[in-house]
Amino acid sequence: MGAHSQFGTGPAHEFVETRRHPRFKLEVNIRVYPRNSAVVRGHTVDISESGISAILKTEVPIGEVVRLEFALPLGDVEVHALVRQRNAFRYGFQFVESSSAQDIIGRTCRHLAVEQSVHDPRTA
After folding, report:
1. Could you tell me which residue ranges the PilZ domain spans (predicted)?
2. 13 phi and psi, to 5 degrees?
């Protein structure tokens, strides 16, 4: 049995498996505070212990460190992150600080890992 049969086939599954931290679906409101402009609002798509992706309504510069604010089931989070990539309105952010927010993010990811593996048809 090859690796593809365990994790599915296709580039999407291969891409997810090569990440440093697995990502988990998470849809919550997010506020992004760029250095020289007003708050940008949007909603998250997924989260990992090292970053988060979100759909934003306004452009944010790639390479800038921004402040993010969002609410997780285990608490509100305020964290600084580097804007790593953009694909249309979807942005990828990498967390750049270690803080109490990282503890909440880590615990949330572990909770989502269990919750989403229960609902994943590949694990049935």
Report:
1. 17-102
2. -70, -40
Closest-CA residue to 25 (of 85, 115, 100): 115
Query: Degrees (nearest 5) of the Cα angle 50, 60, 108?
Result: 25
By the 10 Å C-beta count (0-12 exposed, 13-18 middle, 19+ buried), 124 is classed as exposed
22-123 in CATH: which number?
2.40.10.220
pTM score, two decimals? 0.74
Domain ranges in the chain are 22-123
Q: DSSP for the chain?
A: --HHHHH-SSHHHHHHHTSSS--EE---EEEEE-TTS--EEEEEEEE-SSEEEEEESS---TT-EEEEEEEETTEEEEEEEEEEEEETTEEEEEE---SHHHHHHHHHHHHHHHHHHHH-GGG-
